[in-house]
């Protein structure tokens, strides 16, 4: 941790954040950096004034695409933009042949699972997270799972799942919503990754990201193809598309400019700070919280992610909130989540309230 110049006593990101309460709830929604708020307000004001080019900049949208690509280690041509994880997963689900088997961890996030289960003509199976890799079999077409579980912060064995899928010829869909922004990822190792932008990526709601390998692109149906899906942007406004984009941009939704103007600034901040530094900082805070909980006689879920869940302690959330400490309750767990703007003082404040 010292080699990364990380101190738990001060936040990363400088003056970009000024929360008015002890905010330990990034797994629900990340705080917006000051620069992001300024970018969204500026575009809103320019739109109200009648900006010359309409209501947003494709160039700035391109900056967001490129920044996300760098954060997850792929070329921008492998990144598609959208509005939500559910929409990305829906496109993947609708592209599978009838009868395909899809394997999920038990209790994973609904937006990953439901787009597949509502089809009715797919074979879906569920396995405990710790047995996901060994549950892949030759007839499995797709393994879809979250890198970090929303309900309790458990991390999947990424290497084991990837190896098992490759051994059986299954494709992979990794939901990185609870990981991208603090956990170094190589999205090119997965056929598809999806990430909602409004949590650890610190983007406004309405920005989400899909990565698609070039091989997987060939079997993915762009079911919401639209005027921005063409290889040439401004020649597709009327009539059918002349040619779909040759890159993953063919899977773009028509983007909402306000969140993407903000996303470009948020992702730039994450790049400036560095995901490795954020990981060391947030993991250190989570470890401090787990240790403190254990000392108080509680038993947090065993893991080393930045999300800390405590079974059976969800009824303390209201008391924490009244004391100015914001956490969440998921599946009966009291859930705290740490990011670059948190400090040791935040951890200690939450522990003090729980001890009272």
Describe this entry's structure for a reader:
By secondary structure, this protein is α/β, with parallel strands linked by helices. 35% of the residues lie in helices and 15% in strands. It has helices at residues 34-49, 58-72, 85-95, 110-117, 132-135, 158-168, 214-217, 257-273, 275-295, 317-322, 344-355; strands at 22-23, 79-82, 101-105, 123-127, 140-146, 171-175, 192-196, 208-212, 307-311, 325-326, 328-330, 333-337. The strands form three sheets. The chain has a seven-stranded mixed beta sheet with strand order 2-8-7-6-5-3-4, sandwiched between helices. A three-stranded antiparallel beta sheet has the order 9-12-11, with helices on one face. A two-stranded parallel ribbon has the order 1-10. Strand 11 and strand 12 form a beta hairpin. The protein starts with 21 loop residues before the first strand and ends with a helix.
Q: Low-confidence segments, ≥5 residues, pLDDT <50?
A: none
Q: Major sheet: size, sense and barrel closure?
A: 7 strands, mixed
Order of helices and strands: EHHEHEHEHEHEEEHHHEHEEEH
Assembly form of the protein = single chain
Strand order, biggest sheet?
2-8-7-6-5-3-4
User: What is the percentage of strand-forming residues?
Assistant: 5-15%
Q: Would you count the extended β strands for me?
A: 12
Anisotropy-based shape: globular
C-alpha end-to-end distance: 31 Å
Q: How large is the count of helical segments?
A: 11
Radius of gyration: 21 Å
Overall pLDDT level: 96
């Amino acid at each position: 941790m010292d080699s990364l110049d990380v101190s738990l006593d001060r936040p990363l990101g400088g003056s970009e954040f000024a929360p008015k309460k002890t905010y330990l709830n990034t797994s629900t929604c990340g705080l917006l950096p000051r620069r992001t708020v300024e970018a969204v307000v500026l575009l809103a004001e320019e739109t109200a004034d009648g900006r010359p080019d309409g209501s947003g900049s494709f160039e700035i949208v391109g900056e967001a695409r490129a920044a996300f690509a760098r954060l997850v280690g792929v070329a921008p041509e492998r990144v598609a933009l959208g509005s939500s994880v559910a929409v990305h997963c829906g496109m993947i689900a609708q592209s599978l042949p009838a009868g395909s088997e899809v394997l999920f961890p038990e209790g994973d996030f609904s937006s990953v699972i439901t787009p597949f289960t509502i089809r009715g003509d797919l074979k879906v199976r569920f396995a405990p997270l710790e047995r996901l890799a060994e549950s892949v079999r030759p007839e499995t077409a797709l393994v879809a799972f979250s890198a970090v579980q929303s309900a309790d912060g458990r991390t999947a064995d990424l290497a084991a799942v990837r190896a098992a899928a490759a051994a059986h010829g299954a494709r992979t869909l990794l939901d990185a919503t609870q990981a991208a922004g603090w956990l170094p990822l190589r999205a090119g190792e997965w056929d598809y990754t999806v990430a909602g932008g409004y949590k650890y990526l610190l983007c406004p709601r309405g920005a989400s990201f899909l990565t698609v390998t070039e091989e997987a692109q060939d079997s993915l149906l762009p079911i919401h193809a639209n005027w921005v899906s063409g290889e040439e942007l401004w020649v597709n406004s009327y009539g059918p598309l002349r040619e779909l984009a040759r890159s993953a941009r063919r899977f773009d939704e028509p983007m909402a400019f306000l969140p993407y103007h903000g996303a470009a600034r948020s992702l730039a901040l994450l790049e400036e700070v560095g995901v490795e530094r954020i990981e060391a900082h947030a993991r250190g805070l989570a470890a401090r919280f787990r240790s403190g909980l254990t000392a108080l006689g509680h038993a947090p879920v065993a893991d080393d992610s930045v999300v800390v869940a405590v079974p059976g302690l969800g009824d303390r959330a209201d008391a924490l909130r009244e004391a100015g400490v914001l956490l969440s309750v998921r599946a009966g767990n009291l859930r705290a989540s740490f990011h670059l703007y948190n400090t040791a003082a935040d951890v200690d404040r939450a522990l003090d309230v729980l001890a009272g």
